[in-house]
C-alpha cells in the first residue's frame, strides 16, 4: 500500500503554505501590543492592587499572643548539637517565636 506522489506533494504544499503564513506575521505587532497592554491594565494592575490591599488589611488585623509552651516529648529530638552558635539554636532561630527544648528564652 504505497502513498501516491500526488498526496505527498499536496502534503508538502500545505506545510509550505502553513510555514509561509507563520513567517509572514499573520498577526500584526500592533494587535499583539494592544492585547498585552489591555491584559496589563485590566488584569495585572488590579491584581497587584488587591494583593496590596490584602496585605495592608492583614497587617492591621492585630497582634496575637504567644502560644503557651508545652514540652511534647517528640519535639526537639536532637542526636547531636547544631554546628553553629551554642548548638541549641536553629539556624534561623527567633527567640520570640521558637522555643528552646525546655522553654521560651525570654520567660
From TrEMBL:
The keyword DNA-binding does not apply. The keyword Magnesium does not apply. InterPro entries: Cyt_c_oxidase_su6a, Cyt_c_oxidase_su6a_CS, Cyt_c_oxidase_su6a_sf. Its main location: mitochondrion. Pathway: Energy metabolism; oxidative phosphorylation. GO terms for biological process: mitochondrial electron transport, cytochrome c to oxygen. Pfam families: COX6A (PF02046). GO terms for molecular function: enzyme regulator activity; oxidoreductase activity. GO terms for cellular component: mitochondrial inner membrane. It is a single-pass membrane protein. It comes from the Eukaryota. Keywords: Membrane, Mitochondrion, Mitochondrion inner membrane, Oxidoreductase, Transit peptide, Transmembrane, Transmembrane helix. CDD domains: Cyt_c_Oxidase_VIa. It is found in: Mitochondrion inner membrane. Belongs to the cytochrome c oxidase subunit 6A family. This is Cytochrome c oxidase subunit. It comes from Canis lupus dingo (dingo). The lineage of its organism: Eukaryota, Metazoa, Chordata, Craniata, Vertebrata.
Amino acid at each position: 500500500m504505497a502513498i501516491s506522489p500526488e498526496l505527498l506533494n499536496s502534503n508538502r504544499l500545505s506545510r509550505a503554505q502553513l510555514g509561509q503564513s507563520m513567517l509572514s506575521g499573520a498577526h500584526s505587532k500592533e494587535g499583539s501590543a494592544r492585547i498585552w497592554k489591555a491584559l496589563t491594565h485590566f488584569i495585572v494592575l488590579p491584581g497587584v492592587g488587591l494583593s496590596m490591599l490584602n496585605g495592608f488589611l492583614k497587617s492591621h488585623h492585630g497582634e496575637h499572643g504567644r502560644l503557651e509552651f508545652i514540652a511534647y516529648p517528640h519535639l526537639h529530638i536532637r542526636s547531636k548539637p547544631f554546628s553553629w552558635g551554642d548548638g541549641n539554636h536553629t539556624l534561623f532561630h527567633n527567640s520570640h517565636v521558637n522555643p528552646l527544648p525546655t522553654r521560651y528564652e525570654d520567660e
